[in-house]
Structures are given as C-alpha cells and as structure tokens.
Design a protein that fits this description.
Layout lengths: L3 E5 L3 H9 L10 E7 L2 E7 L1 H5 L8 H7 L4 E4 L2 H18 L3 E4 L4 E5 L10 H14 L5 E5 L2 H10 L4 E3 L5 H5 L11 H9 L5 H6 L2 H8 L2 H10 L15 E11 L2 H22 L1 E12 L4 E12 L2 H9 L11 E13 L18 H9 L6 E4 L9 E4 L19 E13 L6 E6 L2 E15 L12 E9 L4 E7 L12 E6 L2
Catalytic activity: DNA(n) + a 2'-deoxyribonucleoside 5'-triphosphate = DNA(n+1) + diphosphate
Protein name: DNA-directed DNA polymerase
Pfam families: IMS, IMS_C
C-alpha cells in the first residue's frame, strides 16, 4: 500500500516575496499580492498579518487600501510562484523521495513508501520537512495518508502543521471533510450543495448511479481516489539536469536474477551518459513500475561522486530481495538524482604501495543498509561536552585539534552525573566519592584544571567555573570529576560534584 505525503504552502506568494526581498518591507507590516485583469485589481494572496486585519483573498485592492494604512502591495507573478514550487519539488526529490511531483500551484506531493525509515518514521519525516521549510522562510503544512486525495485534503483543511493518518484509517480521517476537498470543479461543487450535500460522508452515502448520470464519472472517480480504492499514480518530476535511463518489457519480469541482469544494463547505460557529461552520481533511484500501476523505489546514496558500474550495481543488487514484483514488472527506470563533476584520477602502479585506503565503498554499503555513520571531530570550545561534533564519515578534515595540556578521558559521559563526595574546599580533590551507588576511596589525584564558562556565547556563564580533577580509586580505575564553582563564591557555581568521564 502506498504512503503519500502532501505538502501545502498556504502563503507561498508572500513567503517568496519576503524571502527574496522583492519589494517587501518589515515582517510585521501586512503584505498582499495583487492580481489584475483589465482595470480590475484584487488580492490573490495575503500573509498572516494581513489576514488578521480582515483582508481576504478576492477582496478588491481599493477596499484593502482603505481598510489598512501603509499596506504593502506587490503585483502577482505566477511564473515566479511556479518556478518556486518546482524548486521545492526538486529539493524534496533529492532529499526525501524518488517520486515527487508538483501538486497544483500551492503544493507538492511525494510517494514515501519505503523511504520514511531513513528519516526515523513518518512523524519525524513530515515534522522535519515542515521545520526545514520554516528555516527557509516558508510556511508549510504536511499530511501523510494512504492516498494522494486524502493527504491533499488533510494538508489543506486541517489547522495542524502535520497530520499522520495510520494505515487503513483514511475513511475515518476524511469522512467529515467538506466536499470541496475532492478537487472537483466549482460548478460541480455548487450543484452538489444545491442538493444538500456538504461533506464527504454525505456524498459517499448517496447512490452512485444517479450521481454518475447527472455529473459524469468524475465525482465517483474522485471519491475512489480519496478513499484509496482507485490508484492515482504520481508522475515524478524530471528536469533536463537529471540523467535517466529506462527499460520497458513486453513480457513482465519478476525473478531476482532477471531484475539483476537488467539493473546491470541500466547501470552501464547510466554511467556512459554520466561520462559524456563528466559527472559522477551521488544519489541514484531505481524506480520499479509494476503491471498493477503501482511503483516501488530503491535509493542508493554515495559518499562521493562515483562512475564505477561495479560499485553502483553492488549497491542496487544488494537490495533486490526487497523488491516485490507483484504480478510482474513492466518498466525499470534508473535516475541519477544528484550528479556532481567527477575529476579523473591517475591510477598508480601496482608495484607502488598505496598509502591511503579508500573506505568510501564500505561507507556506501553500510549507509545504504540503513546504518547512521559519522566521525567524531574536534570543535573549538573549552567546555568538554561542547568540544565534540559529529561529521560525515568522509568529510574533509577541519584542521582543529583538542587541547593537549591536560589529559582527557577516553570515554566522556553524555551528561555529567552528580556524585556524592567528601572534599576540603576550595582546592582539594575528593577523598571519597559515591557514583551510581558504589562508594570509592580515592588514593591518588591530580588537579585542579580550571575551565571557565563561555560568556561570549551565553551571558549566564559570565562567572561560571569548573575545577576538574583526575582521580584514581583503590581498584585502579581513573575518573574525571569536577566541582561546579571555585569553592568560595556561590555565584560561580553550585559547588556540587560531578563525574564527567572515565579513563581507559
């Protein structure tokens, strides 16, 4: 069963104008977009501030000017809005799903079946999408459901930023929605309302034969698409920059060996096209079209641009067992969703020992199996828990180094854990400490190492102080402990003791 995500941009024209600064003023000043037809001028879009003042889409521009002083008015630009939607769809294609399309003038739609686990599940997937778009200055609402029609309707007719409809619960989620969610023409909607039909539930309860005689097959088709009874394929977005190869089959295929054979051929064709353009693939999608008009997708990501057919074939064929051919596969499409320039590198002689081993093939294999890979790298900070960052497994070295004046433990706890101690203030290490219920007598200690708070980042740390000690207990275990504060002034810290690390 497919899972479809619909993303709706309720304020796309005004968000685009503010984001690009096309004549927009301060954020708190109301902004409207004005459309024209001959001498008529009306509001085609309004931001949140304008709507709060009573301005509505369709209102004459002269009335809006009379109602709100200093109103920002920008001429509508449908071509720029359309280009913005296409850029957003391409962004989603590269980041979230192999099957993404533009959904009208105010949204995008994508099939995420089998792709949500890469983002931690559907809740995290769509909340991450909405938050990421908010960071780009765009207001968005997203819904995920079993059908395009249900996701489209819920994204536009609910006030929640994100909606996740559990599998099989589409009927319960949409039964109370108004009939204009069905994407029918305005004349049909008016005629249905004349008959007293206001909600999807009321419409679905009517006999379908009379409805078909009066309105044609469109009403029944849209109802079936809404409830998921009729498939509504998403035609993936394609641009001239995307390198794509495909193979159609007169007789459907289904055996794993046959699929692997044609995948190898498609990879050979794709790498040949990439070579003509001097590109290497960073992310490729294998889209499987089945005879029942459904799709399945496999996505392969690579740590760096690659044009080696053997490596691409291995990444794709390793997961062929995940392909469900159903009643047969009638078409295979292989797309290089992200391609980057690939520099040719001279291969050294086999007699010369290679000093650097390329681990990116291993990184690609583990990453495409769902493993989260990263490296630990230094970060410029005096506070220990802030001096570490996660970077990609093949990221370029930053050149930063950890301070080597004092020893650091091989294991740093995620958060300092409070301990009970006996110590003489202000400068003496603990004599006895209790950590996680175990009492330890300290036989050796070194310190203190004083670390100050980062007052330039957090004003509340202006007076903050930590005194760190390396201590060793009777069993020979070495621990890294600190006292919050200088041991004299309570304003520098609570004077409580914490364990922060363990030496190997």
């Amino acid at each position: 069963m497919p899972r479809v995500v619909s993303i709706y941009f309720p304020y796309l024209p005004t968000d685009r104008i503010r984001r690009h600064g096309d004549g927009a003023g301060p954020v708190d000043q109301p902004l409207v977009v004005i459309a024209r037809s001959g001498s008529k001028r009306w509001i085609s879009a309004a931001d949140t501030a304008a709507r709060k003042l009573g301005l509505k889409v369709g209102m004459p521009a002269s009335k809006a000017q009379a109602m709100v002083a200093n109103l920002q008015m920008v001429d509508a630009d449908p071509l720029a809005d359309g280009a913005a939607i296409e850029r957003l769809a391409l962004w989603a294609l590269r980041r979230y799903s192999p099957v993404v399309a533009v959904d009208g003038v105010d949204g995008i739609v994508m099939d995420t079946e089998g792709a949500d686990h890469l983002q931690g599940g559907e809740e995290l997937l769509i909340s991450g999408i909405v938050n990421g778009l908010r960071g780009r200055g765009l207001t968005a609402r997203a819904a995920v459901a079993d059908s395009w029609g249900a996701a489209h309707a819920l994204a536009r007719l609910t006030s929640a930023e994100t909606v996740v409809v559990p599998r099989g619960d589409v009927t319960k989620a949409v039964i109370g929605l108004p009939i204009h969610c069905l994407r029918l023409g305005p004349d049909t909607i008016r005629a249905l309302r004349v008959l007293g039909v206001e909600t999807v539930g009321e419409l679905s309860a009517l006999p379908q034969a009379p409805l078909t005689l009066r309105f044609g097959s469109e009403v029944g088709r849209r109802l079936d698409q809404l409830f998921g009874r009729l498939a509504e394929p998403i035609e993936p977005l394609r641009t001239p920059e995307l390198v794509e190869v495909a193979r159609n089959f007169q007789e459907p295929i289904g055996a794993a060996e046959t699929i692997a054979k044609y995948v190898r051929r498609l990879v050979a064709q794709l790498t040949a096209k990439l070579e003509e353009r001097g590109l290497g693939v960073r992310r490729s999608d294998l889209i499987i079209h089945r005879v029942d008009n459904t799709r399945q997708c496999l996505r392969a990501g690579l740590a760096k641009p690659v044009r080696d057919p053997a490596q691409l074939v291995k990444l794709l064929c390793d997961r062929i067992e995940k392909i469900d051919p159903g009643f047969g596969i009638e078409r295979l499409v292989l797309v290089a969703v992200i391609a980057e320039p690939l520099e040719e590198k001279q291969v050294t002689s086999a007699l010369v020992e290679e000093e650097v081993v390329d681990v990116t093939p291993l990184v690609d294999i583990l990453g495409n199996r769902g493993q989260r890979l990263y490296r630990i790298a230094p970060l410029a900070s005096d506070v220990p828990e802030r001096s570490i960052q996660r970077i990609g497994p093949t990221a370029i070295e930053t050149g930063a180094h950890w301070a080597a004046k004092w020893p650091r433990p091989s294991r740093l706890l995620p958060y300092p854990e409070e301990i009970e101690t006996m110590a003489v203030l202000p400068d003496q290490p603990p004599v006895v400490l209790t950590w996680r219920g175990k009492r330890r007598r300290i036989v050796r200690a070194d310190g203190p190492e004083r670390i100050f708070g980062e007052w330039w980042l957090r004003p509340r740390e202006m007076q903050a102080v930590r005194d760190y000690f390396v201590v060793e207990d009777e069993q020979g275990e070495r621990l890294w402990v600190f006292r919050a504060g200088d041991g004299v002034d309570i304003g520098t810290g609570s004077h409580k003791w914490f364990l922060h690390g363990i030496f190997g």
